[in-house]
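Hello support,

Our group uses your service weekly, and this is the first time we've seen a run hang past the timeout. The protein is Alpha/beta hydrolase fold-3 domain-containing protein. I'm not sure whether the cause is the sequence or the server load. Input pasted verbatim:
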Amino acid sequence: MAARILLLPLLLSLLASQCGAAGSRRAGDAVKFDFSPFLIEYRSGLVKRLMGTDVVAASADPRTGVTSRDVVIDSANNVTARLYLPSFRSSARSPVLVYFHGGAFVVESAFTPIYHAYLNALAARAGVVAVSVNYRLAPEHPLPAAYDDSWSALKWVLSSAAAGSDPWLSRYGDLDRLFLAGDSAGGNIAHNLALRAGQEGLDGGARIKGVALLDPYFQGRSPVGADPGYLQSAARTWSFICAGRYPINHPYADPLVLPAASWQQLGCSRVLVTVSERDRLSPWQRAYYAALKGSGWPGQAELYETPGEGHVYFLTKLGTPQALAEMAKVVAFINRD
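Update from on-call engineer: The timeout came from a worker crash unrelated to the input. Re-ran successfully.
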């Protein structure tokens, strides 16, 4: 109960930052950046988010049998997470999945209905202890804030499991089966964290077994098949997300610029890349898979494609045959020896 009371001010702060003060916009306040359908930023500093601001409470989910609860990771930076524990636990420990939500780095959270539903379903089907990370959003906190917050969350998972400070992670989690996953921007985060883990190492000698990149948010200059008209828009929005700190051909956005030696440092044993046929980002996603396969990286890379669907369709079409088939692929990827 004390932890929930402590978390409440942070959730309220998150909601205030995400939703903005709708009544605070002054007459004549000009638009500074229109990032529809996600948000609009005004010259007064007001950020009006147009989606991804609803939240649902942690709970015991009757449909999946999964129980969730919220934790504070870094109160100074409002970094929090929602943990998920499946009901069909055995004496054996379960894989630990650290998940990063999407939303173009500017909307959504670990507490929105679509991510709560998705993580309930994934935790139940894969039998994992899942940690859904709530990182700070741009433009109030431009990149690299999301990367730094997510790295802090990964370190928290490792330390909490080792020290016994989180009962679910320490009692049920198997850090020898540690996985990262994320959709869209979250997939971008998962890749960049795996790269950092390979370069810097993880606390206690921990290793990431696998990374699932679900329709990941990668962009760049000219992969085969990319829409030329989209490239200019992509460069503008990327600059908005990072406050101009990194060009669109920076490795954060475009891993294709990495030399083979950097790909070889990717700190995991296997990678799954999913692609939706109608996703405008699909050229970069396929090129990512090809570059990883051709880099000399010693791990196993898999590509899974869904025909006829758009970007991260599986979040809003969770019960459809296509979404269920894709989740089955992710579950098999996690549970394969």
